[in-house]
Queue: 2 jobs
Job 1
Amino acid sequence: MLAWTIYLSFLGAVAVTLTPAKSPAVARVTALLTALAGLGIAIVAIMHADQSGQVITIVRTPWISHLGIEYHLAADGISLILVLLTGIAAVAGILFSWNVERRVKDFFALYLVLIGAVYGVFLSFDLFLLFVFYEIVMIPKYFLIAIWGSTGREYAAMKLVLYSFAGSALVLAGIIAAYCVAGQRSVSFEVLARFPFPVHFQMWAFPMVFVGFAVLAGMWPFHTWAPTGHAAAPTAASMLLAGVVMKLGAYGCLRVAMMLFPRGLDPWGFRVLGFGSWQQVFAVLALIGIIYGATIALVQKDLKFVVGYSSVSHMGFVLLGLMTLNQIGLSGAVYQMFSHGIIAGLLFAVVGRMVYDRTHTRDLHELSRIPLGRLIPFAAVTFVLASMASIGLPGFSGFVAELQVLIGSWRSFPWMACIAGVGILIGIAFTWRALQATFLGEADTAASPQQAMPPITLPERLGACLLLASTIVLGLYPRFLMDLILPSLNSPLFEQLRRGAWR
Amino acid sequence: MTGLSYLELLRLTAPEIIVALAGFLLLVLDLTFLRQAALAIRFRTAMVAACIACVLALVLLESGSAQGTLPAGMLVVNSLTQLVQMALLALAIFVLLWVDGARFTTHVGEYCALILFATTAMMLLVSTQNLLVIFITIEFLSLSLYILTGFDKDSPQSAEAALKYFLFGGMSAGILLFGMSLLYGISGSIALQPIAVAVNASPGDPLLTLAMVMVLVGFGFKIAAAPFHMWAPEVYQGAPTGSAALVASSSKVASFFALFLVFYLGLMGAAGSAAWGHYSAGWVPLIAILAALSMLWGNLAAIAQTSVRRVLAYSAIGHAGYMLIALVAHSRESLTALVYYVFTYALATVGAFGVLAALEGEKVDSIADFAGLGKRAPGLSFCLLIFLLSLAGIPPLAGFAGKFYVFVAALEIPNHFGLLWLVLLALVMSVVSFYYYLQILKQAYVSEPKPAAAAISVPVTTRIALWTTAALVVILGCLPDMLLNRISAAVTSAFQ
């Protein structure tokens, strides 16, 4: 049944294009219903998931028999929670783009294609199929930003797409190489995860594929597409971009690079510039991402750029968690994928939809002169809560995730945990600065006349509540996801990773 | 040369005879009965007649017409060559279907007849393993294409393109013939099989090297590989759309197939190796250099173009580079991959030119002219989206499956991963190509149409051709097995 998340989204896209052009409401409702159906399926699937870490095969049928490629959709715990994240982000995104007036049908059709392809990536258990969905994501992403975006949209869209296409070229090279080296005439995860690739092959295939995916996860120094892309994208697109598309990259790093080429993480046996293995290299890059993203966010003038750089910083935690190579670090990384997906979505929703669409400015200085806290109190409350979640206060999902990552990295590289802790502190600083400027500042009421602002609409309230509820529930009851993540990490698929570099 | 049975010849060439006869019939028909008729009627009649002939030949091939071999490899008809011939016929039909909208000439009969003659030449070219016949058919094909290129007599660009094409073509034909004569001198035969024996006996012969280089130059011109590509941008831009499409698609299919056969069957003994760190002299390293040059030059130069047709031309040069990788790998697997790639490539290219043909009345040339096409002609621009994304190699379209298979075939050759450098270069260049294809699509979908621009109407037959092509691109991308298994079986049976 999970496969229908994909099919329904694509069918929904077709249905939206077939709705009458004169009534955009029909298109909106169709899109919303499709997304809700996807979310419903995801929730039902999670409810029924057994917690043994088994991979549930959904569809498995030969596809390109000449090359031994299968149409193989399956899910384990990690896939399931990311599917759930996609469902939540999709519904919230549609609710927050209720006010799109230009080319409504095209917008929602592309949006649903994007969603369907994202579901596809998370559910693919054949490398070829995964790549197909991964590439499909790119096309709607480009058009969503280029057509409905704001500041420098064409530049940002092209930059984003070229970065991700370059990354996927590396991934494709890795896939083809893995296919030829294994010589099993198959790129199924089940076959390749068991195949003992030669160590010297893994040593170059691992970094290639890891970097290929990490480009999309916003790894420093390949992150520069992220802030411009997020800032230029329309609200729903930046919610998806930060919420799920960056997770595609992180998911690929874990599912493909680390699961198939775990020996690539082994020590090289020699040291270059103090580095002794790819694990250390990428951990340091992730750490730089955390600090760099946070520091840059601290000095941004554009509110959306603040959130954009904060995404880079938070995704650094995901990558750092992956590189700790211990159970708590990895589970923290997966948890952070989910948590950041929700929180980033929330932040972009407040910034892009609630604030920007009403004030038409994202400049922190100008915003500080508008008494937003009084004009749109709902947005203020949402933003305060979202900020608390973002800086990782206990009780929100971000806390659970980042704590695990920190513990994990303490075990692997204690000094990195300290620096990452500093990163969290800077995170508090930039979040506070943004909060101060937008909602909590002493607005100069004399200078700016009281503008009347359209009140917060119902779809916005619903979307905000959905996201807030998710982050709070997962902050208070982390077992809900942990029971799915941990068994999956202990499943036979990750056995090589556990046996190899796992500590 | 004894024992050539003319009856056998007739049996083996029945499909070609149908197409050629239809060409003559068209000429006669157009000059006699239809002389006084309106131009539209003449176009429509010619189109219908030519299409019927192609369909007849196609049905004949599909129903399993005669297979066999004539002495000295003059004609080798097997299921593989028949498959390629069917693809050529299908491409000819697609090109003919847009003739309905064409208004650039009054010489209707000649135009359609020449398309049929060119198709005949290509069908013969793919079904021979004899140097002399290869040369004659290449000349036959080239002559038809020169005239087709210059067919728009009112356009100086068309004339310029034809002249350029002719001069380059004539020169490279001379070089090709010289190379072939050297091969004859070495082996004492013009059939590929005896040549292979002679080459195996003395692979290091310096004369052989010269011959190989010359043959490669000749073919390099036909397939527009850098640095023999200079004619391509001119021809793509100046020629009437139908002629350009023929040059870009089916002539590519036939030339690549013939090129592979000549080197794979005739010169296998002097292959050498282009594997990284295992270099050894032969034609493979030469082709690897051509491939790398074509990928680099084609894709990088395409970025700077402002005319859509020139973008397509340079991208064609880049694609020639990708396809040459299959030749570098020179295995059966890579032949399967090459045939699949070149089919799907030709399909997408014919489609892209079809969109240009439909826009002919709009005088569309530069990329900026595409602004707002998505609003003015939604169907047309959706087809364009499919074709260009397939050319860029975005899954799940046919171009991606082809690319994937070619790269797999290149890495699967015994000397493990020696060709990784070519594959990586190809992947990097495909990122570049994505950029310029996206530039065109950006105009079509993101930019607003010019204020005065109206909706665009497209003739029914063109529309049918375009939607069929687009559907094929999607289907072959989603279900590559349909074609791959067939090609693979044919390759296996042809070289057992």
Note: The CA atoms of residues 390 and 398 of chain A lie 6 Å apart.
Job 2
Amino acid sequence: MSRSLILKTHKALVSKKVSCLELVNWYLSEIKKSDLNAFITVTEESAIESAKKVDDKIRNGEKIGILEGIPMSLKDNFSTKGIRTTCASKMLENYYPVYDSTVYDVLKKAGCILLGKANLDEFAMGSSNETSYFGPVKNPHDKTRVAGGSSGGACASVASGLATFSIGSDTGGSIRQPASFCGIVGFKPTYGAISRYGLIPLASSLDCVGPLTISVEDASILFDLLSFYDPKDERCSPIKRKPTLNCLENEIKGLKIGVPTNCFYGSDEETYNAVENAVKFYEKLGASVSFFEFPELDLSMPIYCVLGRAETASNMSRFDGIRYGYKYDGPYKDIDDLMTRTRSIAFGEEVKRRILVGSYVLSAGHKALYKKSLNLRNMVIDSFNKRFTEFDVLMMPASPTTAFGFNYAEGDPLKMQLADICVVPANIAGLPAISVPCGYDSNNLPIGLQILGKQWSDDLIFNVANVYEKENFCAKIIGGVQYEV
Amino acid sequence: MVNREEFLKLCKLSRLEFTDDEIPKLMEGMDSIINFGNKVSECKDSSIATDCDVSFVHRELSNIEYEKCIRDELLSGGTNRDGFFFVKNHSN
Amino acid sequence: MKYDLVCGMETHIELSTLSKLFCKCRVNFGDSPNENCCPICIGAPGTLPILNKQAVRYAIRMGLALNCKINSFSKMERKCYFYPDLSKNFQTSQNDLPLCSGGFVQLESGKKIRINHIHIEEDAGKIKRHSDGIYVDYNRGGVPLIEIVSEPDISSADEAQEYIEKLQLFARYLKISSARMQEGSIRCDVNVSVKPSNSNELGTRVEIKNMNSISFISKAIAYEYERQSDALEGGLPIEQETRRFNEASGMTESMRNKENASEYCYFPEPDLLSICVTEKELDDIKKEMPKLFSERYDYYLNLGISEKFARLIIKYVNVSDYFDEVIRDCKVPDKIASIIVGPIFSYLKTEVEKEKFDISVSTDDLKYLGNLISEDKISNSNAQKVVSKCLENGFDLKEEVKNFISDDSFDLEKICKDVLSQNTEAVKDYKNGKEKAIQALVGKVMAQTKGRANPEKILSIMKSLI
């Protein structure tokens, strides 16, 4: 049985088991019923209109593409022309972009139907989707727990049958960590594989676009669609892309797997066991596994704290109420006063905190810290490259724990940031990495296995993940739209 | 680590303002992140050039011809496949 | 106590590329506000800059002309500060690794004003204050600029003036900018300090901004020199500050004290790749460089044109281009030069008109005229008259010249013989040493030919007859 939800849906449409309009209406009604708060904006009218067009095509006997009529959600930090894009912030509460992000443009061309913009941590800053101006997102597996962040809404929508797939962004683990919390597949490509044009940036040298799906095959289809050279993004690589879909079933005998032992620091025992079991599975298939110490891995998080916030502070500076977004409407002394009041009112606490740390790190007296972080970043990249001459892939947990409860960090920003300890290294080094469900803990909370590879080994990552998923498929759709073909 | 004077300077620099009540907690939060970030100072400088762009790694244009990607199909608004058979040796 | 002036300049030149530095918006002055804007230069969230390679090429031309080293690897950086004319509240510029390093501008005296570096950056928008509020026009935002930073080698207001004028000439000859102060396509900020002549220690620097003509810059420097010298003489310290020039009073005055805004938090622009200039690209740019004024000046002198005329012609790039076209395959370049400096420059009264050099007489027309001169078919003075008439009245030159052409249908020799035979007294006077006598005879021949004959020709025929 194919595990691809996209294909299942496509088959259902083509075999006329369900019309596109019925399907979309079903999704929309489930979204209305849901209390997970996964969506900020629901694009009901346009979704219905698009569905009707697909049905017309099918009725006329025309062939439709595999993604045509497939309902999706999109993390609300992707620019969508004419459709509200809030970044889960008061600052952009009523912001309607005048242009489309490249990614959304291509998804539209492929015929996908947008159901709505998914909730996220404000401006993608957070690891639990609790900093959103529009309220937190609940975990479909346990509503007393968080969905993870920052792509919490996107992951929750897929895991709870409110979208066939979603597209999120990953700067310090924001696709993979919530994917593991919600028990779905989350893929972060090599940095520069997918265009960032139209993705409202958090940290420009770290931001990646990636798919959130029920199965590896779906993620592979979406990656192959979205990974191409876009001249509108200078950091998007012109390198020729290797298709990943054709590699899913490749043999992995002889695959060399490395497991960094220090990545288990702070892990739940159950998480550790699940990952260890997964690794053993590969061994049975003929892969070789080595546990090793990877000290440079530990540098990733401090580097991220410095570099990430520096770029973030600068990226947030354009929000001042003058050209778009929230503008303070009371009396003010002068332009500086207007900007200060606007930003202080419209930005949430975590955003302001990161701006301050970023400004600190970039200011004259502390430049050494920033320069050192840049310098060490190269060292981390180099040390990964060296490891990848010994190993084909590295494996570790996507998160040290399963989904935690609300207010877990109790206002301690460092505690929250450390939730990303396993996923940040791939961002620092620009590596492709996937989180694929590998079990549940005793609370029935999903555990994610993370697989990393060297730059431009995206196809290998999909292959290795697919091989595991084939025999160990455990992703669940909780409620929402479900059907068998 | 960050004293009040410097904190206020940073606020001005970033066009942010806070009430007196908010400041202590914010400064504490900043300190914890900055202290953590300062771990990098404990390391020796790496000999790999600071001016090395991450993107330089991506600059090599590969001349290898790959098999056709599914993108054309996905964008063409029609498919010749029967829906299922994407993957080699895939069975129903 | 004698004081030396120590002055350095930061000159911004707007490049005349078709598009802005980071997007495809047009670069055009005088369009209605915010007409030439797009999501990128407005700073819409999620947009990304794309570097305009032509701007880099233009900047490299300037670097080559000023004898700079063109760095094969340079970085764009963000200069962070909040101001409404900056759509992203940071300016994408360069800092640690600029495009060009070193170099110099040589003055007429032979003195070299050293260049510290040249970097590229984007311009900010324009703030307009109206009675009902402050408005921002982002048309100018994102326009490519080069900033040329000199070392503090300038030691007089005159040198400063010459330095700026040279930069203007370079920019215009390289065809990278119109470099007009009135239009704002060239702007200069000056750093002035003084020091006692017998000391090597530099004084406190004062920055003077917002002067929009070369003469104001000159006056400001002169005033500032006096002000600082007087202060030091009186034992008073110089405050490091930014001042503006008050045109009415002729004095510099302190600008409203901004907080120490020089916290620019430079860091590498993460959205843009580093700028790499290969050897081949550099060679291509060198090949497509237009001929500079110093080259042309030497060339003109070799053609026998006087220094004075040559200097006047190279002063305006459009004039020089026009002149170069006319004198290709021309036998009388010096005569053409006189025509330009004579009637044409008299007609174009203002500097702006001379810079624009928009005249009804085409290069073809003047080539034609040049041929006639070289064939002795028209005298110099008549040629100049023709040009004047055409400029003033818009006549077609080839038509107008017919009224002045020597008509060889009349037999000049015969007319000369006739005049000589009719004026034997004058001939005798001339033979006795009265030079003026022959002029009268020439005049008579001219009268007979209705002024068309070439007086020099007449003179030579007469002399040979006598």
Note: Confidence is low (pLDDT under 50) at residues 54-59, 87-92 of chain B.
